[in-house]
Design a protein that fits this description.
Protein name: Two-component response regulator
Number of domains: 1
Largest sheet: 5 strands, parallel
Number of helices: 6
Pfam family, one: Response_reg
CATH topology: Rossmann fold
Distance between the termini: 15 Å
Helix content: 40-55%
GO biological process, one term: phosphorelay signal transduction system
InterPro entries: Bact_response_regulator (IPR050595), CheY-like_superfamily (IPR011006), Sig_transdc_resp-reg_receiver (IPR001789)
Number of strands: 5
Shape: globular
Strand order of the largest sheet: 2-1-3-4-5
Radius of gyration: 13 Å
CATH architecture: 3-Layer(aba) Sandwich
Order of helices and strands: EHEHEHHEHEH
CATH class: Alpha Beta
Keywords: Phosphoprotein
Amino acid sequence: MNILVIEDELLIQKSLKRLLEKKGASVDVSSTGKEAIEMIINRNYDRIVCDLMLQDITGFDIIEESKKKYNINQIGEVFVIITAYSSPQILEKANSYGCRVLGKPFDNIEDALAVFLKES
């Protein structure tokens, strides 16, 4: 399974990469939205774990750009949004894309990894 983790907090990024690789996934990482968009357009991922608030753009901006490659159903299947700021507006917008939203810090890392690995 190929996973892209888009996260600008390096500790979280490195931890997720290590944990997912331990579970057998192949993991690419990006700290910026612009770099992530390039990676999404040029490579194939089974799952994209995307932080909502990046330093350059938002996770929703990345999803919009990803429409060049994926249809709306594929976006809902591929993207999981992670955020420390989940408001009703954010959840509503994520739902409009069909995306799962996980709050940070994760309540249970094993459950979060299962979502990222499409096990649940």
